[in-house]
C-alpha cells in the first residue's frame, strides 16, 4: 500500500471535480442540481479505509493485502475507487452535450492521471540519504494505481460518450430495461472478460530469469531462474499476468515489493513480513506488478459496473414502486448476485479470489460489496 494515499487523493479530487465542473456549467434551472450525497459519503469511507489499511496493514496483516489468493480489507480499496469513478462518469458526462468536448475532457484527465502516476509512484528516487535526487530511467516503475485508473476511466468514458443516444431515451417498463438500453456497454464488457480469461488461461509461460536486486539476499546480484513451462497456471511465479508484464514492460520496470513476499512459501512469519525461509523458492526475490497490463484490463469491469449503477440512478425513478425503492431493489439484488457468484467461483476452486491477478471472482465480490455499501448509504441519506 506504499504511496496509495497520495495517489488516491488525486483520484478523489479528479472524481469530485468531474462532477462539480459539469454541475456549474448546466443552464440555470428553477431547482438547483444536487450532488449525490451517498456517493460523496462512499468516497469518504473509501478514503478512510485506505488510510486505515495503509497505516495499520503492517501491524495487522489480516487487514492488509492478501499475499496471494484471498481478499482482505485492503483489497477492497482499489475496486471501490474504480466503482466510484464509474458512477461519476455516468453522472458527469450526461451533462456535456457535445461529444468532442466530452472526449477532450476525458483525454485531458487521462493524461493528468498518467502524469501524476509516473511522478508519484514510478519515480524510483535514489540516494536520498546523500541528497542526490533523480529518476533512474532504467528502473522506473511504468504501471501503478493512477495508471490503472486512467486506463479504466479512458475506456469506459469513451464508451459512455459514444453511446450517448441512450441518455435521452425514456426507460421502458421492465426489470431488465436498463440492461437493454445500454446493451453495447455490456457487450464490450463481455468482450473484455473473454479477452482476459482467454489470455490468462491460454498463454504459455516459459522459464524466466531475473537478477536479484535485494541487498538482504545472499544471492544479491546473481541471476536466478524460475521454472515454469505451463499454461493456465495461477500460482505466483508462472501466471500469464506476470509473464505479459515481463515481456512488455521489462522486469526492471515492475514493482519490487509484491505482496507475495509475505506468503507461506517465502517467509517464516507469514502473513507478516520477515526473513525468508532457507528453502524459499527463487521467485520470492522477484518483482511482480500488481497493477500490470492484463490485470488492468480486467479492472475495467469494476468501472463498467459502477457506470451501470450511475445509469440506474439516472433512469430508474418510478417504474413499479414509489420513492427510491426500484433503484434499491435493483442495486441490492445485483450486489447480492455478484457476491454469491464470486464466492462460489472462489470456494469451488474454479477462479480464486486474487487482487494481484484481478480475477473475475475478485471483480464480482468487490463490486458486489461496493454495491451493497453504496446502497446502505443511499438508504441512510437520500
Automatic annotation (TrEMBL):
Coiled coil: none annotated. Keywords: Membrane, Transmembrane, Transmembrane helix. Pfam families: HGSNAT_cat. The keyword Transmembrane helix applies. The chain crosses the membrane at residues 36-53, 73-94, 106-125, 145-163, 184-204, 293-316, 328-348, 360-381. Residues 35-159 form the Heparan-alpha-glucosaminide N-acetyltransferase catalytic domain. It comes from the Eukaryota. This is Heparan-alpha-glucosaminide N-acetyltransferase catalytic domain-containing protein. It comes from Solanum commersonii. The lineage of its organism: Eukaryota, Viridiplantae, Streptophyta, Embryophyta, Tracheophyta.
Amino acid at each position: 500500500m506504499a504511496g496509495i494515499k497520495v495517489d488516491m487523493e488525486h483520484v478523489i479530487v479528479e472524481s469530485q471535480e468531474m462532477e462539480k465542473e459539469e454541475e456549474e456549467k448546466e443552464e440555470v434551472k428553477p431547482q438547483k442540481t444536487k450532488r449525490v450525497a451517498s456517493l460523496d459519503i462512499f468516497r469518504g469511507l473509501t478514503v478512510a479505509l485506505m488510510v486505515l489499511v495503509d497505516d495499520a496493514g503492517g501491524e495487522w496483516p489480516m487487514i492488509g493485502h492478501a499475499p496471494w489468493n484471498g481478499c482482505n480489507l485492503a483489497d477492497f480499496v482499489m475496486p471501490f475507487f474504480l466503482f466510484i469513478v464509474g458512477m461519476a462518469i455516468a453522472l458527469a458526462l450526461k451533462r456535456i452535450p457535445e461529444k468532442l468536448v466530452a472526449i477532450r475532457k476525458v483525454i485531458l484527465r487521462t493524461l493528468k492521471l498518467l502524469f501524476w502516476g509516473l511522478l508519484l509512484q514510478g519515480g524510483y528516487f535514489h540516494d536520498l540519504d546523500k541528497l542526490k535526487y533523480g529518476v533512474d530511467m532504467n528502473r522506473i516503475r511504468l504501471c501503478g494505481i493512477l495508471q490503472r485508473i486512467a486506463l479504466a476511466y479512458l475506456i469506459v468514458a469513451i464508451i459512455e460518450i459514444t453511446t450517448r443516444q441512450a441518455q435521452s431515451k425514456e426507460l421502458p417498463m421492465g426489470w431488465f430495461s436498463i440492461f437493454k438500453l445500454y446493451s453495447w456497454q455490456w457487450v464490450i464488457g463481455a468482450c473484455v472478460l473473454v479477452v482476459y480469461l482467454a489470455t490468462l488461461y491460454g498463454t504459455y509461460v516459459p522459464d524466466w530469469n531475473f537478477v536479484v536486486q535485494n541487498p538482504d539476499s545472499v544471492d544479491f546480484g546473481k541471476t536466478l531462474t524460475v521454472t515454469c513451462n505451463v499454461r493456465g497456471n495461477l500460482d505466483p511465479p508462472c501466471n500469464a499476468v506476470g509473464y505479459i508484464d515481463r515481456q512488455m514492460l521489462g522486469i526492471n520496470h515492475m514493482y519490487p515489493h509484491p505482496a507475495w513476499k509475505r506468503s507461506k512459501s517465502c517467509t517464516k512469519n507469514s502473513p507478516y513480513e520477515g526473513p525468508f525461509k532457507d528453502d524459499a523458492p527463487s521467485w520470492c526475490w522477484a518483482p511482480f506488478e500488481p497493477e500490470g497490463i492484463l490485470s488492468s484490463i480486467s479492472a475495467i469491469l469494476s468501472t463498467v459496473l459502477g457506470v451501470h449503477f450511475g445509469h440506474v440512478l439516472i433512469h430508474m425513478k418510478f417504474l413499479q414502486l414509489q420513492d427510491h425503492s426500484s433503484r434499491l431493489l435493483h442495486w441490492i439484488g445485483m450486489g447480492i448476485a455478484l457476491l454469491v457468484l464470486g464466492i462460489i467461483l472462489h470456494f469451488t476452486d474454479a477462479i480464486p479470489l486474487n487482487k494481484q491477478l484481478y480475477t473475475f471472482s475478485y471483480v464480482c465480490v468487490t463490486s458486489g460489496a461496493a454495491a451493497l455499501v453504496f446502497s446502505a448509504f443511499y438508504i441512510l441519506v437520500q
